[in-house]
Write a structure and sequence with these properties.
There is one protein chain. The chain is built from 4 helices and no strands. With about 120 residues, it is mainly alpha-helical. The protein has 2 domains: about 1-40; about 40-90. The longest helix has 24 residues, at about 40-65.
């Protein structure tokens, strides 16, 4: 995987190149886009949100389309897990805001001399 900076520089070089036509630039930009890390891929996020949303809605809609009015406990657990995963996935990740506080320096050590060997 390449860093964001490297990919951005490649985008800039391709866009500013006067020797290529627009179709060649489009093909190259699409290939360079694939160099990004998977967590920057927009289709991954969309797919996860759609699947988790469908599972959660399916759990809620199950009693309306089935003969029984009660949701089985296994399906309820899957739906609850999907809702929790969806909420966690859509919540912004502020890792800088949650940085652990710095630990205080360790107390000064008491430099004591080792005990003298027993006299014979």
């Amino acid at each position: 995987m390449h860093s964001r900076k490297e990919v951005a520089e490649l985008f800039k070089v391709i866009i500013e190149n006067k020797d290529m036509n627009i179709f060649q630039k489009k093909i190259l930009l699409n290939e360079v886009r694939k160099l990004k890390s998977p967590d920057e891929d927009r289709w991954v996020y969309r797919t996860v949100v759609w699947v988790l949303g469908a599972v959660a809605l399916g759990t809620v809609a199950y009693p309306f389309f089935s003969a029984g009015a009660e949701i089985p406990s296994g399906l309820l657990a899957i739906g609850s897990a999907a809702m929790g995963a969806l909420a966690g996935y859509l919540t912004p990740n502020n890792t800088k805001a949650r940085a652990e506080p710095e630990m205080p320096p360790p107390p000064p050590s008491h430099n004591q001399e080792p005990p003298a060997p027993p006299a014979e």
